[in-house]
From TrEMBL, chain A:
Alphabetical list of Gene3D superfamilies matching this protein: F0F1 ATP synthase delta/epsilon subunit, N-terminal
Gene Ontology molecular-function annotations: ATP binding; proton-transporting ATP synthase activity, rotational mechanism
GO cellular component labels: endomembrane system; plasma membrane; proton-transporting ATP synthase complex
Keyword field contains Hydrolase: no
One Pfam short name: ATP-synt_DE_N
Role, per record: Produces ATP from ADP in the presence of a proton gradient across the membrane.
Name of the protein in its database record: ATP synthase epsilon chain
Amino acid sequence: MAGKLNFSLVSPEREVFAGLVDQVDAPGVEGDFGVLPEHAPFMTALREGPVTVFTGTARRVFTVKGGFADVNAEGLTILAEEASEVAAA
Amino acid sequence: MASLKEMRSRIGSVKATQKITKAMQMVAAAKLKRAQDQAVAARPYATKMAAVIANLSAGVSGDDAPKLLAGTGSDQRHLIVVASADKGLAGGFSSNIIRAARKRIDSLIASGKDVRVIAVGRKSRDQLTRLYGKAVVKTFELSEHKTIGLPSAQPIAELIAEEFEEGRADVVTLFYSQFKSVISQVPTAKQLIPTVVDGGAEPIDLKGAVYEYEPSEEEILETLLPRAITTQILAALYENQAGFFGAQMSAMDSATRNAGDLISALTLQYNRSRQAQITKELIEIISGAEAL
């Protein structure tokens, strides 16, 4: 089992999520993408849509509006203009 | 010498004033806590944004670089954004920011540059429109929004972007007060355009891998930079807010203490004259009795 992915989701007002996770799915402007641990460096603009965070069997969904995703050796950072958690369905 | 009755009412009024300043101090302290938390919560975004821009701008240079990053190549037209508080009763908080801004504006004008001003906050609006009149492009009031947040920063950033794109500004500088501690706020100038790449933010070691960009590097930078400006303004507004309450708290604290000193001085004086009057009356009675 590979290591965990260090993920943080920040909005201008506060840090919405920070922690170690298994996988994150995010809506890129040129298509949705998933990030696993040890992903290659990658940067993209985001469109409005859901960001899904997988930790073990748990799953949390956030909606983001505009922003950027930055994947590098340190993990994934999403800078979102607006971000809020969607109540678990 | 004031009569005893006059002195009593004087003491009463000082006491009432002290109650008000005390209450204001406590309110400011409570609000300071919230403003401080907010400023701290906004920090990760600003830090990460700076790191991303440092990363990106390392790769983009020369003619391809967006104007927001590289500048227009001239520094003739300056746009100065002065962010102060809306309210007073906070010592020299707003005046300090405005004084720092005026110093810069005056020296720019003296060296023959074109200067235009955006005033944020009622205090800077009042002072700057009086001083510079037509140079003030637009003013913003912070109380338009109930709390400081993205909606308060966005219109300011949009106006700056518009001024820059229409070629009415080459260099944009923001004046605000950096929140050092409750008792120390430092008026600070921050250059917004051209974007200053934070040399302190170390590019992340990619271990030989190459970044992939979607869409292209330039396009990302072009959308990212205006956002960085909004973020910087927002961060400045948060710092200002925290600084304002800090300044207000210490101003009200010293006002409360001054009122306390005044009350004890007045009370002492009051008691003395009361005592003197009693003594005088006693002497009159005694000498009256002796004369019999």
